[in-house]
User: Which sequence fits this backbone?
């Protein structure tokens, strides 16, 4: 009887913890600007957007969205866009000024339009960095994430048989990462990465990869693989 009581108590506590985790205090955008340190991006001091071809943004226009913080607060109706080049979430304040989230570590996730961004650790060679990723396939056990890439190319002076070219932003293909639980996300650039990233269910995972021809350049197939792994 005593053992049964202890088990029931543990179950109740776990249920309470899950319920508590899901609760967010909701505040408006103005509260976010009043309570958060914001910084201006330094890109516009170098060149104005009109001088550059292409775009550094995931979404050129600001979209009203929601910021979820690590302190379990969510701020709604915040005008947002993501600057891929500077790796910053930008916000437009009530007076029209554009500012960047600082520090980004306060962010759990950002939702705007069709986008969900998370700020998570990831591996670069043997180093661990943190950055924003677009969520392609969510999951508690595993998640498929995309890291957008933009290159900045300086202006080219006129030369023989070549006209002058303005500076430009060049959008590159996304890099895809898989994150297992709360571990740093791992870059998936080879088929071998797919076979090795999952810590368990190796046989089932490898069978799925071969059967459905899952490859790093096919994000829709990788999303299906992550779905399958999360179901095991």
Assistant:
């Amino acid at each position: 009887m005593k053992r049964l009581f202890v088990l029931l108590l543990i179950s109740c506590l776990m249920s309470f913890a899950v319920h508590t985790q899901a609760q967010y205090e909701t505040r408006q955008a103005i509260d976010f600007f009043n309570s958060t340190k914001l910084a201006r991006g330094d890109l516009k001091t170098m060149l104005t957007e009109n001088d550059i071809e292409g775009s550094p943004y995931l979404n050129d226009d600001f979209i009203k969205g929601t910021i979820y913080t690590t302190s379990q607060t969510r701020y709604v109706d915040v005008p947002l866009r993501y600057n891929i080049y500077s790796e910053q979430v930008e916000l437009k304040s009530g007076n029209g000024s554009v500012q960047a989230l600082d520090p980004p570590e306060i962010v759990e996730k950002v939702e705007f339009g069709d986008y969900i961004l998370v700020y998570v650790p990831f591996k670069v060679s043997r180093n661990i960095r943190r950055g924003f990723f677009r969520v392609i396939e969510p999951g508690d056990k595993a998640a498929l994430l995309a890291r957008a890439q933009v290159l900045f190319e300086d202006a080219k002076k006129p030369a023989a048989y070549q006209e002058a070219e303005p500076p430009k932003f060049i959008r590159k293909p996304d890099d895809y990462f898989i994150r297992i639980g709360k571990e740093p996300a791992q870059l998936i650039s080879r088929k071998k990465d797919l076979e090795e990233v999952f810590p368990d269910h190796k046989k089932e995972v490898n069978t799925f990869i071969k059967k459905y021809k899952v490859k790093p350049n096919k994000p829709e197939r990788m999303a299906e693989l992550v779905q399958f792994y999360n179901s095991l």
Remarks:
- The helical segments are 2-21, 29-35, 43-46, 191-197, 202-211, 219-231.
- The radius of gyration is 22 Å.
- Residues 1-21, 42-46 have pLDDT under 50 and may be disordered.
